Amino acid sequence: MLLNYLKIAWKVLLRHPFYTFITLFGITLTLTVLMVLTSFLDHLFGAHYPEGNRNRSLYITMMMQTDSARESVNTGPYSFQFLKRHAKTLKSAERVSIASMFGFSNSYVGGKRIKLNTKFTDADFWHVTNYKFLEGKPYNDQTIAQGERVVVITDDLKKQYFEESTESVIGKTIEIESITYKVMGVVRGGPPTRVYTYADVFFPYTAPKSNYQNAGMRGGYQAIVLAKTPGDRPEIQAEYDNAIRQIPLPAKENGFTFSVIVAKADTYFDGFLRTFLRSDNEPNRLAFYGIASLVLLMFMGLPAINLVNVNVSRMLERASEIGVRKAFGAPSQTLLGQFIIENIFITFIGGVFALGLSYLIIYYINSSGLIAYADLTINWVVFVTSLGVCLLFGLLSGVLPALKMSRLKIVDALKA
Amino acid sequence: MIRHLFKLIWNKKGAHSLLIIEIWASFMVLFGVLSLIIYNFTNYLQPIGFSYDRVWVVDLSNNQDTVGVAAKNQRIFDMISAYTEVESASRMSNNTPFSANQMNNNVTYNKISAVPDMYETDDNLYETLDLKLLAGRWYRKEDQVSKFRPVVLNKVLAEKFFQDENPLGKILSKEDKKPFKVVGIVDTFKAKGEFMSNAPAIFVQNESMSDWVQPILIRTRPGTDATFEARLVKDIAALAPGWGIEVSYMTESRQNRHKLTLIPVIIFLIISGFLLTNVALGLFGILNLNISRRRSEIGLRRAMGATGWNVTLQILGEMWTLSLFSILIGLLFAVQFPLLHVFDLAAGVYLWAMVAALLTIFVIVTLCAWYPGQQAARIHPATALHEE
């Protein structure tokens, strides 16, 4: 019986290849856009290499200093000393790592220049992140305390600086801004979209030019707090908020007197929104969600309306077919069943195409080098959900008119 | 004629409401994307106002070294100016062209107040960036003694302050600081690249460039390469150990700036292109089906003496009226953008976007209705009426 329906569905699709194409195009396009978009969002916000612990991490990235009227505002990352005093000491956390924001530098090898992103970190950085060491090992607290001139580099930098050398480069030296460092480890690089952990070369924070000695609250450092479980995070946030409240105010820094400081330990996404919207109040966040969903609705709504439109017109065209089937004694349920199967059939074909297309696009983005070390993947939950939505629209637009028509008098249906 | 078409559409408002929503939504999407494109394009048409090839930016930071910073700064700058590979060198505040840094300050003249981009520079910037002077001159060493700080404005800012008056020699006030005296006018200065709007800009002479660590801009001679760059970095490092030194090429930072603008535009363009193709195909399919349902009606018209062209025109006319109706609804929404100043764009941009979106919709609709219209014209009255 089912096989029979599928056969009919196939014949119906082939009878009007053009309409089939329109319907498939709409479904495929909508699904593909959704898939690529969510895969990109997952790339930005999900827990991936080297921030595999993102789900149980908190990010302390920005401090805002302002006067009570909120007229002048100074915003920026923290100083190393401030984080050492207030973040490193969080008791409810498993580990806390302090690292600088990535900076820029150049290195010169044989008349060629290599652009570098640099980062100064403590030893805990290598526990909080899950960077994979291809060669050597990370620096530890002892190396840092002794102020050794060592670095950890990425495989990409190794390839550029040591000219495709296949041997180990541990113990070899690398010259950056006229200072020589010994290579201690080589890690597999991560994508630059993960700004809190991305760099080409990692220095211990006691290396020259790190400015970890600076007093004051603001500087160039950020902290990543690793909680034992994701559920521990509210407790850590409360502890950090409490530590911030203990700071005597008003205070003065670089000639600017402020009586309010906003300093939070955020989850990755909240932190992103805070930086992006440059604000810490709820309404703005709501407005952002509102605008984002409106744009999405606009872009996704159009193919949906189109699908409904085409489906409705096609069903009207098939009135005579329904008439004939009814005249030969087919009950309404059988007719309905047939149309449902037809709709599911075409939606799934569209789904398969969309999956193929999304794979191609994602493969292209990953391999084109648009984003170094990109690791976009297909999100199956989103795929199944959006396939379900397509099916819903298909059923609403295809089956409802069919239902209405299957209730028509045979004479009227035949006449059409 | 139009009233008649309206009646035809009104009679089938149920069936047409979905079409109207579809065209309305397409119009809105087109309006959004075209506003973005037109905004960037009109910006692109304005000249950038300076020359950036062969210009390098040396960013310095003194880190923990606080001893004799001013003297070191001066020595580094003198050394750089002395290289044979360097045509011209200059120092400015850290909002160098194509960088992410921005500095805005309030400046007032005769109660007209503006918040231009402010660039604190030395006397050489004019030469290093090859700026185009329209009137007056660039500030010089002699200007330092006067009780005003000499400034150069760009044309937009000068027009805002002085309209038709001669701007040279006028005095601008800046809160509690030393007042400014206008000595020259440059054409445009779009520091963030060609896609930036031609925003007001003011160049202020800074007498004490050495006191803080500032970026140094270098115009190199043609053919200078990374070998010189490596030497430069080594020499600076020898003069000031422990300082951070980063050299970047303006051509490269310009490319990065462009990417920031172009990538979103391209993504929106691709997505809306697919959406509109989708809509066009759907429209075409629906119209085709409609024609086959209206065979008897069209047959009757043909039998009553309507020519093939009349029939095609009727189909096209119906679609045009329908589109016009949808676009009118769309315009009601679109007009809110310039009225409520949703984004900080000129009203002209929105206006052009509306016109362009309207034309695009009509072109798409006409293309989609053309073939079904032709098919309708080919219906033979005898066969159509016979079927009935």
Q: Indicate how many domains the architecture of chain A comprises.
A: 2
Reported for the largest beta sheet of chain B, the result is: 6 strands, mixed
Structural class of chain B, by secondary structure, is: alpha+beta
Instruction: State the largest interface.
Output: A-B, 40 and 44 residues
Low-confidence stretches of chain B: none
Q: β content of chain B, as a range?
A: 15-25%
Query: What's the β-strand tally of chain B?
Result: 12
Number of domains of chain B: 2
Membrane topology (chain B): Multi-pass membrane protein
GO cellular component, one term (chain B): plasma membrane
Family (chain B): Belongs to the ABC-4 integral membrane protein family.
Main location (chain B): membrane
Structure description:
The complex is a heterodimer of chains A (416) and B (388). Helices cover 49% and strands 19% of the residues of chain A. By secondary structure, chain A is of the alpha+beta class. Chain A has 2 domains: 2-47 and 285-415, no CATH class; 62-265, no CATH class. The relative contact order of chain A is 0.17. The mean pLDDT of chain A is 85. Chain B has 388 residues and is α+β, with helices and mostly antiparallel strands. Chain B has 2 domains: 2-46 and 256-387, no CATH class; 63-242, no CATH class. In chain B, 53% of the residues lie in helices and 15% in strands. Chain B is built from 12 helices and 12 strands. In chain B, the strands form 3 sheets. In chain B, strands 5, 6, 7, 8, 9 and 10 form a 6-stranded mixed β-sheet that branches. Classes of the chains: A alpha+beta (416), B alpha+beta (388). The A-B interface holds A 18-19, 21-22, 25-26, 29, 33, 103-106, 108, 111-113, 177-179, 208-211, 213, 298-299, 301-303, 305-310, 312-314, 316-317 and B 15, 18-19, 21-22, 25-26, 28-29, 59, 61, 63-64, 225-227, 229-230, 233-234, 237-238, 242-248, 271, 274-275, 277-279, 281-282, 285-286, 288-290, 292-293. Chain A: Residues 294-409 form the ABC3 transporter permease C-terminal domain. Chain A: The chain crosses the membrane at residues 21-41, 286-308, 344-365, 377-400. Chain A: It is found in: Cell membrane. Chain A: Its main location: membrane.
